[in-house]
Design a protein that fits this description.
This protein is α+β, with helices and mostly antiparallel strands and 147 residues long. Helix content is 32%, strand content 27%. The protein has a single domain, classed as Trna Endonuclease, Chain: A, domain 1 (3-Layer(aba) Sandwich), CATH 3.40.1350. It has 2 helices and 6 strands, in the order αβββαβββ. A 6-stranded mixed beta sheet has the order 1-2-3-4-5-6.
Length: 147
């Protein structure tokens, strides 16, 4: 029978592996977004980290933002508006977002007028996959379709 100390060490190791997987998944997502950009204004990636460098609270893991240089009209001038994409990152064996998470993501997107909600799924030694949320369904996409 395992002692409580052994169980605690195993839990700590599992948490460290999950944290490393999460950081790596975010890094790979940011890299693929920057690599897929061929023209236009550069996307900037904002990572929300918690107090110890781990994941922070909230449903949005990364935020991609860039200036929109199209003509807006009215009081706004070219370059005054922003394009925002909300990104949730899943690494390793993390499950897809629940319906509650999807509802929260949609509400955050509406609040900030985001142009898309993207799910990034990274598993070790496989290709990074992007999905976009359309009518409560995650549809696979190529990064160039959004970024």
């Amino acid at each position: 029978m395992r002692s409580s100390r052994q169980i605690e060490r195993e839990c700590q190791k599992a948490a460290q592996r999950a944290s490393r997987t999460c950081r790596w998944a975010k890094t790979m997502t940011a890299w693929l977004i920057s690599w897929s950009q061929t023209k236009g204004t550069k996307w900037h990636i904002v990572d929300f980290v918690g107090p110890n460098g781990c994941e922070s609270r909230g449903v949005v893991d990364l935020l991609a933002v860039r200036k929109n240089h199209s003509v807006c009209g009215g009081i706004l001038k070219r370059g005054d508006s922003l394009d925002i994409v909300l990104i949730q990152v899943k690494g390793g064996s993390a499950p897809f977002p629940t319906q509650e998470d999807i509802d929260r993501l949609k509400e955050v997107a509406k609040y900030h007028r985001a142009r898309a909600i993207v799910l990034s799924e990274w598993k070790a030694q496989t290709r990074l996959q992007f999905y976009v949320l359309k009518r409560n369904r995650w549809l696979p996409i190529e990064p160039e379709e959004v970024f």
